[in-house]
Design a protein that fits this description.
Helices cover about 35% and strands about 30% of the residues. The chain has about 160 residues and is an alpha+beta fold. The strands form two sheets. Strands 1-8-9-2-7-5-4 form a seven-stranded antiparallel beta sheet. A two-stranded antiparallel sheet has the order 3-6. A hairpin with a 5-residue loop joins strand 8 (about 100-110) and strand 9 (about 115-125).
Length: about 160
Amino acid sequence: MPSNTPVINNRKAFHDYVIEERLEAGLVLYGTEIKSIRMGRVSLRDSHVEFNNGQAVLIGVSIAQYENRGYANHQPFRPRKLLLHKKEIRRLARKVQEKGMTIVPLKLYINDRGYAKLEIALAHGKRQYDKRKAIGEREAKRDLARAHKEARRWKA
């Protein structure tokens, strides 16, 4: 990844879903959309992937309109086609239908060749008690790290 381009993460996905499998997909974009992505004006919150007519379509991603546009611009919430192999699309569509899983975007970035790539994940939703358990584990780890830091400080 080029160092000057932002990486847009979907942190809420890790809170709401258990991630099973990750994939990388390309996106079909307009010129003003890629310019907005390079500026980091994207929100992946509350987005998912649907399958229509043998195609994977990204729904609910907001790419803000490009400010320095001429006469043409894009719609911020339009559905965007994902570029995946036909086998991958069929396999993912089957898993989503059978097991009640969903496909959520995790990360949007520009690769070394200048193409926008989307990291997607096959995931299933966490229950409320799973979320509480994850928060408890995170707080316990934080308290342990704090105690270690305090012990090192008094030791020196």
